[in-house]
Write a structure and sequence with these properties.
This is DoxX family protein. Keywords: Membrane, Transmembrane, Transmembrane helix. The protein is an all-alpha fold and 136 residues long. It has one domain (8-121). It has seven helices and no strands. The chain has helices spanning 8-27, 29-34, 44-61, 68-79, 83-90, 93-98, 103-123. α1 packs antiparallel against α3 (44-61), α1 packs across α7 and α5 packs antiparallel against α7 (103-123).
């Protein structure tokens, strides 16, 4: 008998969230471009576009067992470098309000993003020998 994979639900939730976020970056690109810090305003469009691709690819990869390593590194490569932008947003609450974002959500994003990064690391770790045969 095989042991149930405790990371399966996490991969489904994270994969759905990352894929949805990638799609949202395309559909609502003006909003996401406006979240790019002023210091990088010259590159807002490409940063937002690359983020959309990374999130979409990272999300889909969560569902494909052979691509778990790609999912891990793709998603972490997006989550870790965007933490400074999240911190920068906390220093501009009026700008966030003008975009329709509650400053409390901006503050909550920082620990939430760290938790998502930890969950991504955990959910995409190599499976044990028994779990290796399970789908997703």
């Amino acid at each position: 008998m095989t042991t149930p994979d405790p990371t399966r639900t996490a991969r489904i939730v994270l994969g759905t969230a990352f894929t949805g976020a990638g799609i949202a970056h395309v559909v609502k690109h003006e909003f996401f471009e406006s979240l790019v810090p002023e210091s990088m305003s010259k590159w807002r469009k490409p940063i937002s576009a690359v983020t959309a691709v990374i999130q979409f690819v990272g999300g889909i990869s969560m569902f494909i067992p052979r691509l778990r390593g790609l999912a891990r590194w793709t998603n972490l490569a997006m989550l870790v470098p965007t933490l400074p932008a999240a911190v920068a947003q906390t220093r501009h609450p009026d700008q966030m309000r003008a975009l329709g974002v509650d400053p409390k959500l901006v503050i909550a994003r920082i620990p939430a993003q760290a938790l998502v990064a930890a969950a991504t690391w955990w959910a995409t770790r190599p499976p044990t020998a028994e779990q290796h045969q399970l789908p997703i």
